[in-house]
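Hi there, hope your week has been kind to you so far. Do you reckon you could talk me through the fold, stretch by stretch? Thanks so much in advance, here it is.
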Amino acid sequence: MDPISYSPRRAAQLLKTEPKELTSLLRKDAYSALDLLALRQKMRRMPPELGPRCQLFLNFKGGTGKTSLSTSYAFRMAEMGYRVLLIDLDSQGHATKCLGLDGENFEKTLLDVLVKRTPISDVIVQSGMPQLDLVPSNLTMSTVDLALMPLAGREFKLRNALREVEGQYDLTVLDAPPSFGLLNLNALMAAADLIVPVLADFLSFHGLKLLFETVQGLEEDLQHHLAHVFIVINAFNATFKLAKEAQEALQQHYGDYLCKTVIRQCTKFAQASSEGRPVFVADPESKGAQDLQSLIDELLGQLLKGGGKGKPQA
């Protein structure tokens, strides 16, 4: 990721202070991400304690904008002062690319951790954003399900691997491919929270039904209970009648899990991802960035008060 620079006005906004107070502590024409972190610590504007906790972005249906959301979410949480580890589980390496990195440049991926017993600390790379680290992915990850098959305790490999860095991060964000296999089973078994981006269309219902059946099976067969399940509508266009009808249906059938915040359709989001930048870097004033910030505020409100979203039912 290219070096990040903040204007005095933007830095003051992020620190929730006045520009005068900011310049009294450190006067600059532009502030780096490291400057912002140092000022946050000096001003005691660090975020409330959240973790350590692991959150999984997953939907068995593809094309829901999951990776664009998860990477910008992870970036923003780091920008707010949390220590974040983003793990790219997809062999296409899209989360890696969304941070401006090329997965093919890295020799080791999560495959080495889960199958070859490489310590996860040996695979973690810096993203270029302070407080945000990455486990990259590339095409070598395409064989991970097959490689896991004969291993004992194969469902718990990721959860066990994360114990090595427990306490080093406030938040671990998992970006999963839109499929079900041993890799995503590992992700579900490691996660405390499940975040499910959906589109406001009726094809989303089939994917949600299958996902909830899977979660219920984990509870019954492996005694793993998710603390929270959050469904978030992404790329919503209120001018489409079908989108409104789908939103109403989601509210009716999955209202206990459906977030109040809706991420509106935003070309800046897609453009930012294609350029290898989180939306908060590309255009922090865009409606996509504003909506994602509202979603973060909503999720933090639930997590910090310990409120749940009910027990998933198939």
In short: Residues 48-305 form a domain with the Rossmann fold fold (CATH 3.40.50.300). The longest helix spans residues 204-222. The beta strands are 5-6, 31-32, 53-57, 84-88, 125-126, 132-135, 171-175, 193-199, 228-234. The mean pLDDT is 93.
